[in-house]
Design a protein that fits this description.
The protein is an alpha+beta fold.
Length: 525
């Protein structure tokens, strides 16, 4: 059977380049389509086309002469096609006899290739099997073992699709996109500034995200143009206008106004930005690894973290300062399966207050691994660092209940963070608490502005995690009559001024000079 280049996965991964013929094929495919095409569909079509073109070329090449087979006899003047030499055509110029004690008599043909006059000799009338035996035309084109275009695509899509995407983007005069869908520029409906102003007003009046189809109802486009083309044309214009943000989930495209969204949904707040640090995980003993798993920090990659089942009705987390300050909830390994999934972009949702039943818009910021829109909710219920927050699904897949467990209001002695001349210090102050909390995480922050300024100074000075642990740990141990502080408390305290998952903090604690593990997660200095 002839080996086809398009059956070689390495060809698609490493060699394939979009040719002029492929470019024309892409344009014709999109121009003849009734609706926009997904880039993955274009990539699959290119694979199928290249396979068909190669098959046709092979048949045409083979039709020019006899197909070389070592067991066949040839005569001077015969024209022979050599599939193993890229189907080059040669003329037989001499035939002689050969003899080999192991295989007996056979023929030797001398050929001259017609493309460059090179001469070579090949075996003929070979009495023993050979890898180049073609065993008839049916076997030559046998396709029982050929990979289908779908099978090839499944193996090479991660290499091929970006290549196709890049080609489309580089030819913006011919191709236009809305998300991952593509069309030709000639098929588009003209969308002007007036149309976009109408869309902006419609979203503002709604006060919530609006689908493209609903926006289209307010815009006067040519009714003779298919609705799919009108929707695509409008979506393309919306994608390229900074006023609008696509906040739909999956294939459901929906639009909102950037100016109506909280800042933390548009850009990841500095207090939530984690700059990964290198640390030695072998320093974490079983107890520290267990605590890392219990905290379930969304920035912990690997470790003992376990994936939650794909469908869970509810999950909970403990509020740390970066999320309290940003008005966000972390997408921990448990919580992320409750909200709409995604790798990038923003998904608009509705948050329902589990205490009062009020509704407010929320935003799943996939790349930042958090849900934005909870600033007012935190303030209304006077939540602090350490509060236990729960999230629950509803029958509506885009609505979620956010709640906390209330408890009888009482005044407690609470760790309190204070920024003074000596940097970050801690004291114990009385404070009213009316919610369930994790005492090891609980910290009161009476002056968030001072904390923010101090954190910015530390970032500017590039303070390392070891330096922070050395400064903060003695401040925490002095609050306890036993002279100890919990490892989780150190993690919570460091997160006041620098976003850091538990792993690097625990490693720094394990290496801290004078720190002694006294058991049950507590350490002394």
């Amino acid at each position: 059977m002839i080996q086809r280049k398009t059956q070689d996965l390495a060809y698609w991964r490493d060699e394939y380049q979009i040719s002029e013929e492929d470019h024309e094929f892409i344009y014709e495919r999109l121009a003849e389509a009734d609706e926009p095409q997904h880039v993955t569909g274009v990539a699959q079509a290119l694979i199928a086309r290249r396979g068909q073109v190669e098959e046709s070329r092979i048949r045409n090449e083979l039709s020019r002469g006899l197909v070389y087979d070592p067991k066949e006899a040839y005569a001077a003047g015969d024209e022979v096609v050599f599939p193993a030499y890229d189907f080059r055509l040669a003329e037989v110029i001499d035939v002689r006899r050969g003899d080999n004690p192991e295989i007996g008599e056979f023929g030797v043909i001398q050929v001259r290739f017609l493309d460059n006059a090179d001469e070579r000799m090949f075996a003929a009338e070979l009495p023993v099997p050979h890898t180049l035996n073609r065993n008839g035309d049916a076997a030559l084109f046998a396709n029982d073992d050929l990979l289908t275009p779908e099978e090839i695509y499944a193996s090479v899509q991660h290499d091929l699709v970006p290549r196709v995407q890049k080609h489309l983007e580089e030819n913006s005069d011919l191709f236009v996109s809305a998300g991952s869908l593509w069309f030709t520029t000639d098929q588009m409906v003209q969308v002007g500034l007036g149309h976009l102003n109408i869309a902006e007003a419609a979203i503002e009046m709604s006060g919530a995200s609006v689908s493209t189809a609903r926006l289209l109802e307010s815009i006067d486009f040519d009714g003779d143009v298919p609705e799919t083309v009108r929707i695509f044309s409008l979506e393309t214009a919306l994608y390229h206008d900074e006023r609008f943000v696509q906040v739909g989930s999956g294939e459901k495209v929906s639009w909102f106004l950037r100016r109506m969204m909280p800042p933390e949904a548009i850009a990841i707040p500095d207090v939530l930005r984690y700059e990964p640090v290198n640390y030695d995980r072998s320093l974490l003993d079983v107890e520290l690894l267990q605590m890392e798993w219990e905290l379930g920090d969304e920035m912990t990659d690997g470790g003992l973290a376990e994936e939650a089942p794909p469908v869970v009705p509810a999950a909970s987390t403990v509020l740390i300062y970066p999320h309290l300050a940003s008005g966000t909830l972390p997408l921990t390994s448990a919580i992320q399966h409750i909200f709409p999934e995604g790798d990038e972009g923003i998904t608009g949702i509705t948050l329902i207050d589990g205490r009062w039943g009020s509704r407010s818009p929320g935003w799943v910021v996939h790349q930042g691994r958090f849900v934005a829109g909870l600033s007012d909710w935190f303030k209304q219920h006077k939540l602090t660092v350490g509060a236990r927050i729960s999230v629950e699904r509803t029958k509506n897949p885009m609505e979620f209940v956010v709640d906390f467990k209330p408890q009888r209001t009482k005044r407690e002695w609470v760790r309190t963070a204070i920024v003074g001349d000596d940097g970050l210090t801690f004291d114990m102050q009385r404070h009213q608490l009316s919610f369930d909390y994790d005492d090891n995480i609980l910290i009161l922050v009476p002056d968030p502005d001072a904390i923010a300024m101090y954190g910015a100074t530390l970032r500017a000075n590039k303070a390392g995690i070891a330096q922070l642990a050395r400064q903060i740990m003695p401040e925490l141990t002095k609050l306890s009559p036993q002279g100890t502080a919990h490892a989780k408390t150190l993690c919570s305290a460091i997160n006041l001024v620098r976003r850091m998952p538990p792993g690097p903090v625990f490693a720094a604690l394990a290496q801290l000079s004078g720190a002694v593990d006294t058991g049950s997660g507590y350490w002394s200095m």
